[in-house]
Amino acid sequence: MKMSNLQKTMKDSGENSDESESEDEDDKPELESAMMKHTGGVNRIRTTVIGDKHVAASWSETGKVHIWDLTRPLQAVNDSSVMATYTRTGASPPPVYTFPGHQAEGFAMDWSTTTLGKLATGDCNKNIHLWTPKDGGTWHVDQRPYSAHSASVEDIQWSPNEENVFASCSVDKSIRIWDARAAPHKACMLTVEEAHQRDVNVISWNRHEPFIVSGGDDGILRIWDLRQFQHGKAVAVFKHHTAPITSVEWNPTDASVFAASGSDNQITLWDLAVEKDSESAGSSKDEEPDVPPQLLFIHQGQKDIKEVHWHPQIPGMMTSTAHSGFDIFRTISV
Fold this sequence. Notes:
four-stranded antiparallel β-sheet; about 10% helix
């Protein structure tokens, strides 16, 4: 998909209403999309760049993981003549590689940022498989699963600086740190068994600091310092959402900022660097909002929010996916 002609949703004060009405048609956002045929519902999709190719991995509800070459669809959304041919011929590219070995559907997947083409996928049968790229555009998938979890693996995150280290979270309430250099049955190096009171749904690994943020069915956000991870205690706990957390992601450039979304139809923006103002500590509680001081911003208006992500090139811009559609927004907070 390619989005363009994005405008502010609020008009500047004093703008001529007649002129603004005539320009409404020109100000409408545009969306170009190239369809790709996929067998079964798509549970999750993640993209990466390998060499000069944009590649996507998709988790299917059929229990298979597919790898897709996005070259032709990307050409189509950037060139109207290519799009016309693509649409007319139904030129949907097939997967370049498919792994059926999970034998159950799943949601957890992540591309390594330190080793191009390296992938980890986790399923609802508690198994994690590692993918290693091979010559010729294929992958070797280790048939030996990483299976220390006792229930469904919900999310996976590769370390941003250690090529063999990744983290996972599960319905078994735990967060685990793995070292892929060890044999799968010995690879789980660190574990917090009761990371949340209920299922741990999502995790995100900070690119700049040794922090992981996690979100669970309990609606709580927890910050974990990997230097103290073995002690099993989060360094920060935030309770604002009133329903399960569905997505978390650290800001790619600001190490203290992260975003979260929940089944309460809220997207929240947080900054760990914010501290409670000591001057207002003695003021009346009626004058203070009943929210943590680190909560910078709340975005609402969508229904059944699934994921929220930071734009990799435009600082502070975010996109969220929900049953009600896409939102693209940027706050003054970041």
